[in-house]
Design a protein that fits this description.
mainly alpha; 147 residues; 0% strand; membrane; transmembrane helix; transmembrane; 1 helix
């Protein structure tokens, strides 16, 4: 009888050890599952963070490209405006120079015509004076007609 009790006690001890091992196994599996869940959550968070960082970098790149394009467009517009201003100023200066040259030529022509007219007038007066002087000399040399 004592031997039977010992076998029953042994069986109970084996069952207790088996139950404890089962509980420990379930706890270990649950711990592994919890670690896997934490790792999966960390992976998802890491992927989300990487995706957010990539989106921010892409937005920054787009903004930088847009800024560079805007700066280039403004610079091109300023260059066109400067060229147009220089061309307009050059055109105004050319028109002014042509007008000034035409005015100088007209004044020179008027002066030349006035000079020629003055010379012709002087020559005509001198010729008339010469004719009068010659006539006076001829009149003084000719004897008066008595017949």
């Amino acid at each position: 009888m004592n031997h039977l009790l010992s076998s029953e006690e042994d069986a109970a001890a084996v069952e207790a050890v088996a139950a404890a091992a089962t509980v420990a196994t379930v706890a270990a599996v649950a711990a592994v599952a919890a670690v896997a869940a934490v790792a999966a959550a960390a992976t998802v968070a890491t992927v989300a963070a990487v995706a957010a960082a990539a989106a921010v970098a892409a937005a920054a790149t787009v903004a930088a490209v847009a800024t560079a394009a805007t700066v280039a467009a403004v610079a091109a517009a300023a260059t066109v405006a400067a060229v147009a201003a220089v061309a307009a100023a050059a055109t105004v200066a050319t028109v002014a120079a042509v007008a000034a040259a035409a005015a100088v030529a007209a004044a020179a022509t008027v002066a030349a015509v006035a000079t020629a007219a003055t010379a012709a007038t002087v020559a005509a007066v001198a010729a008339a004076a010469t004719v009068a002087a010659v006539a006076a000399v001829v009149a003084s040399l000719s004897p008066p007609c008595t017949e």
